[in-house]
Amino acid sequence: MNHENHDDLESGPSDSTTDLVLELPPLPIPEPGLRELFAEAHRSWLMKSPSLDTRRNYARDVGQFIRFVGSPPDHLEQLAMVRPHDVAAWRDSLQQRGLTNSSIRRKLTALRSLFSYLQVYGHRGANPAHSDFVEAPPAPRDGKTVGLSPEDCRRLLDAPIVETPAGVRDCALLAVLAFTGCRVGELCRLRIRDYKTTGAHRILEIQGKGGKERRAPLPVEAVERLDEWLAVLAATEGSLFRPTLTARGRGSDGFRAQPMSRRAVEYLMERYVRKLGLDPSVTVHSMRVTAITTARERGCDIVDLQDWAGHADPRTTLTYIRNRDRLSRSPAYALKY
Known about the structure:
globular
């Protein structure tokens, strides 16, 4: 396979691995029927996930690999000619471009998933992206998203000015982020009907990745803020969090029917972070990290946290937990000479 930017690679003495790759016999031309098979399998593979975000991300990742190896996007049958060294070269190029290990691992996972699906679909070739052939870079012990201290999270919760309808909305929105640990996409998908009562609990039914649903119980503060917001919104159906009709009106002239976009929620967070003088690295996702970390510090079991956060694997949950006191407990402070 031909790799992108191969003319930019520095020339130098070749090692035995490179010589071995170059001396391999030419690969066979894929059979004509493979084009239809691979195209149909690719479509079916993308449709396997009910999450539109997952479909878009996987399609983008695989599309980047196809461009890297120099295949036309409408000639997916040429994936049958991919070998492990092609995948390893893509991994190395992503590292050289400065992508994080987590991003590279996600892209390799997408590619590995596609080849596994092709095998189930009837393709007899090996999976060149399998971990036995190509190692993914190690995942970081902690994620890079900045978390907030409980004190700064409280400042953020109290930052909106409740004299305006938009401020009442922001109070409720920040409370949902802080007390449910939901993702920004999950927040934007919430509808009024997802706010329910079950027994003695007020809950939000959250639709997570892959269409998975989970129930998030709400503490009293979050319930009060949501009730105040719904009283202002004066609606019984539709999106829970909505953009203002006009930016200048701050909600005094009403709200639109459609849900707030991810970018609108991100901008809202950026505005409050600047107002409070918090670390500019704080994002909407920081609220999720903060919620999981704080709950863990206060004794919550990792299995309960995994279920609450909507993670399929407890190892994912662990990457969200920040050890705020790690430096204070450093062995360096125990040294005396």
